[in-house]
Design a protein that fits this description.
By secondary structure, the protein is mostly helical. It has one domain: Up-down Bundle (Four Helix Bundle (Hemerythrin (Met), subunit A)). It is built from seven helices and no strands. The radius of gyration is 23 Å and the shape is globular.
């Protein structure tokens, strides 16, 4: 089978959904979910590698990759919020940030901008470094992987009556919880930080779209006929 970046992106989302579906169905299912989570994040890196190696990077592929990121983020954080392991504000924050940035990216595409290169949406160097550089994307993917795996391991080892560690001491339980909260909010904070350049520079495309919407269309002149507006 010829694996294209888009096919890998679709597989990544499927693996992520299977992983979340395994959580909460026993200790070993939880551990299997953790392993599949690592696989899903690895597939995220693989599709980018294949796109670069085979010169198959396209604007549509970039949008599919971003869509896959959104689906993975939302399904994991929503699940962990539902079972009470993270605050409900975490998936709300990721959903709101993703919706806003994707909306502005869509406006930029309509105005002829691309996701990368000289015609990229983000023009300033600091914005490109923070959003689209390899170190930023790699760090963000690693933070999400560590966060999801940590929460999955906590679920398997120390959360609920079927946990492998049974009922850990209060101090250990608090320490494990503190680690989960720190990882979760650090990941959420970096998510917001990476969204700031898109919001700042993307606002110009929103303003441009509004100007186009309110600018009256030029009407062809008709010789010998007086326009009502001129009366």
């Amino acid at each position: 089978m010829n694996w294209t970046p888009n096919k890998i992106s679709v597989l990544r989302v499927g693996v992520g959904f299977v992983a979340v579906g395994l959580f909460g169905h026993g200790t070993w299912a939880n551990l299997a979910g953790v392993l599949l989570t690592v696989a899903a994040i690895a597939l995220d890196a693989l599709d980018g590698y294949v796109a670069r190696r085979k010169n198959m990077a396209t604007p549509e592929g970039a949008q599919i990759d971003i869509l896959g990121d959104r689906m993975i983020e939302n399904v994991y954080f929503t699940y962990f919020a539902v079972i009470g392991m993270v605050s409900v504000w975490v998936p709300v924050l990721f959903f709101a940030r993703g919706t806003a940035t994707d909306f502005l990216r869509g406006l930029a595409v309509k105005q002829g901008r691309a996701g990368w290169g000289a015609n990229a949406m983000l023009q300033s160097g600091w914005a490109r470094a923070l959003v689209s550089s390899r170190w930023s994307r790699g760090l963000y993917a690693a933070m999400k992987c560590v966060c999801f795996c940590y929460l999955g391991l906590e679920l398997a080892l120390a959360h609920g009556p079927i946990a492998l560690l049974g009922s850990p001491a209060a101090e250990m339980r608090e320490m494990i919880r503190a680690g989960a909260l720190a990882l979760t909010w650090a990941t959420a904070a970096f998510c917001v930080v990476r969204g700031v350049p898109v919001l700042l520079e993307g606002w110009g495309y929103f303003a441009g779209a509004r100007r186009e919407a309110v600018t009256p269309m030029a009407r062809p002149a008709v010789h010998g006929t007086e326009h009502p507006e001129a009366a």
